[in-house]
Amino acid sequence: MFILKKSSSISQIARLQSPKFRQAGSNCTLSFWYYNYGPSVGAAELKLLVDGLKQPTVLWRTYYNEGNQWLKAVIQLGRLPHPFLFSLDKISLGFYEGVSAIDDIRFENCALPPPALSCEGPNRFWCRDTKACIDSLLLCDLVDDCGDGSDEGSCNPDLQCNFENGLCNWEQDAEDDFDWIRIQGPTPTVNTGPLKDHTTGTAGGHYLYLESSEPRQFRDQAVLLSPLFNPSGSGTCVFRFHYHMFGKEVYKLSVFQRTVSNTKGWLLWYKFGNQENRWIRQTLFISSSKPFQILVKGTVGDGFTGDIGLDDMSFLGCTLYRNLPTISTTTSGTSVPATLPMNNCTEKEFVCRASGHCIQMIQKCDFRPDCSDKSDESACVMEVCDFEDKGLCGWYQPALEQMSGHYSVLITNTFQWQLGRGANLYPEQEQHCPLTDHTTCTEEGWYLFADSSNGEFGHTADIATPVISLTGPRCKIIFWNYMNGSTIGSLEVLCKSGNKTSKLWTQSSSQGPQWNRAEVFLGIRSNFQVIFRAKRGVSYMGDVAVDDITFEDCSPLLISDKPCTSEEFMCANKYCIPKNNLCDFVNDCADNSDESPSI
């Protein structure tokens, strides 16, 4: 079917109308090939007209000459329970010269699921009237998959939201840069965002969207907070939602889970870049041993064609909770117990939490547990850290605590250390951030990295240990580092004691796409901190990562009640050390008597 005409009549419309259809299933799509060529060929649009709705819904548009070629259009229709038809309008304003044509119109997956004689299995649901057998994950997801509404029957309204009457029990985060917007029909900017909602499939339905036009800036974030949920077993709580990411400058949509209210949480899922003009369903299985909350975060791209849409968000197998705890920390990034046991300790002594026993303060954080409950080592850096439990093992970021007052509170657009893994990388990052960790050598393994997509050239990010009281003569720190990218800055290991900071190790520029081992000798030191300092290069193509940080042989010397054996040497201060350590240029005795020329 084609239009071929030269005319100067004003406001001409050529209309091609479809037959009327009774209904469409939830996976229905319409596709066709079109041709729109000529110096003044004008626009064309496809409209959906639904019985009972006065306002038509625009499903597709072409605005201008698209060259001497056939192009394919694919339009997502989705579930349409009422009779409907289509109108293809060719519009000419003023002078019209060109050829417009359409061919190969095709409907796919538009029928409702067929009836079944039986529907057995724990993950299946038998529809009440249509007798279709569907996946149980389709229950209570705000989509009538059965065709009779029975899969959306006995559902808890507190666990689902289609945004037709507001945000339900979701909330806008007060700590982000701007808010999600509730809207009907297309977003204000052409060639980005949805034309219709997902719930009704029409311009009359509501959804949320992220506006990427000014005054928004690149990497501005809008965060939506779910209600709070009780702990859930492995995969028993399911989160379903539909997202729309259409536009050349669409950036990122992420989902986080948290168990503490003033934290960023950890990443469950993300999607990056243009996903075409369609609503996409996503299902996430959530496990948590603690009460939790879900955060949906949209991030603005570098331009105004980056709108992101959200609709039909629902939970299955989850139950609502009251309030999450908050984190309260000291400047060392570790929590302080509210009460101590009865004790007779002085201010210069440490109180063991379980027994009330007193030990010298120098024995706290010295890599040797002196309390029976090991409480003297509980608020310290861990001897071995592989980050696999999504914790920082006592390491903390001093600059962030000064900015936030709380540990782990999300601070955006700052060059800082954070946990990451290959499975969470978006395409741009794969060239300059590790695809696998060092511990497990998989994309699921975690590591610590300084994200160079934030900050500016020359900015530094520090991550430090709490104060270490005392170490032994052979103490060293071993770690693995990954420094690959065209604009790598540097990584340094520093020792800070009081107001004095000294550099122990440094590496700069790209070291190749692999994990490299590093070893830094510490020896005998007291009341000091170890700091990893990353320095940002000239661009975002230069993340620095570390993994498997180990403090080896760091516990201080211990005076034995027994005499030294024949294989040991007694130092002048009564410590016993192996005779193999004599005259090896290392102060193993802590008083240099093992290196004396008189031995």
From TrEMBL:
One Pfam family from the record: MAM
Disulfide bonds: C140-C155, C365-C380, C564-C576, C571-C589
Residue span(s) of domain MAM: 1-112, 159-320, 383-556
Keyword Repeat: yes
Keyword Signal annotated: no
Highest rank taxon of the organism: Eukaryota
Keywords: Disulfide bond, Repeat
SMART domains in the record: LDLa, MAM
Cellular component GO terms held in the UniProt record: membrane
Name used for this protein in its record: MALR1 protein
Gene giving rise to this polypeptide: Malrd1_0
